[in-house]
Amino acid sequence: MSGEVKGIFLYFSGYNGSYKTGGISIAIHKKGNRPSRGDRININKNIRAREVRVIDPDGNQLGVIPTYKALATAGDFGLDLVEISPNADPPVCKIMDYGRFKYDQTKKMQEAKKKQSTFQLKEIKLRPKTGEHDLQTKIGHIKKFIGKKDKVKVTAVFRGREITLSGKARELLARVAQETEEIAVIEQHPKFEGRTMIMVLAPK
Predict the structure, then answer these.
(1) pTM of the predicted protein model
(2) pLDDT at residue 172 is higher than 50
(3) Between β-strands 151-157 and 92-96, what pairing exists: parallel, antiparallel or unpaired?
(4) To the nearest whole number, what is the mean pLDDT of the chain?
(5) Which of 11, 41, 133, 182 is most enclosed, with most CB atoms within 10 A?
(6) What is the model's pLDDT at position 113?
(7) Dist CA 191 CA 196 (whole Å)
(8) Which of 125, 119, 183 is nearest to 154 (CA)?
(9) Residue 102 phi/psi, 5° resolution?
């Protein structure tokens, strides 16, 4: 067989490169990742249903109408027709500013990520007989941790017969909560865990 095979192009999903064998150059190209249908929001002329249930910009139900009429109504408002419930029968569409909707969604996601920011649980230990100077020093540390948006576990430690001073320890924890109430809230009220009494403070 005469002649020369210049190249054979094959397309496989999941690989991008080239392969040579027997003098034949095979180029293998990876198909781009396409968004799944479930991730896409149909708007305006991309809405395939023949009729849809329509909600106007003020949230009023306009009923089930042909899609072309819904598009015309959205045009009268100078807005977009957005398919918000594609699996409903018929699909539900809302007339809105789609660009503004996307902006608001992105902003909500960013705010949600901020709220999910990580924090550390710090611990401050005190004794039922902790003096005023030491107590103020520890309260200062607690305020510093709370200011950094960390939670603080305040632990009253009992040694030996100090377990009989649980009332004193509870008073100290109440004092700590009171002196930090402007910046912190009690997430866990004082309770015994073995030979310790624990209270957890969280930033407001």
Answers:
(1) 0.45
(2) yes
(3) unpaired
(4) 83
(5) 41
(6) 77
(7) 8
(8) 125
(9) -65, -40
Question: Which domains does the chain carry?
Answer: 1-34 (no CATH), 38-113 (3.10.20.80), 121-203 (3.30.110.10)
Instruction: Give the pLDDT of residue 120.
Output: 83
DSSP assignment of the chain equals --S----EEEE-TT--EEEEETTEEEEEEPPPPPPPGGG---BGGG---SEEEEE-TTS-EEEEEEHHHHHHHHHHHT-EEEEEETTSSSPEEEEE-HHHHHHHHHHHHHHHHHHT----EEEEEE-TT--HHHHHHHHHHHHHHHHTT-EEEEEEE--GGGGGGHHHHHHHHHHHHHHTTTTEEEEEEEEEETTEEEEEEEE-
Range name among 72-86, 103-117, 187-201 with the lowest pLDDT average: 103-117
**Omega into 90 within 30° of 0, i.e. cis?**
yes
Quote the tokens at residue 40.
């896409």
pLDDT value of position 116: 64
Token readout for 9 is: 């192009």
154-178 mean pLDDT:
92
Handedness of CA 27, 32, 33, 35 (dihedral sign): negative
> Averaged over 24-47, what is the pLDDT?
62
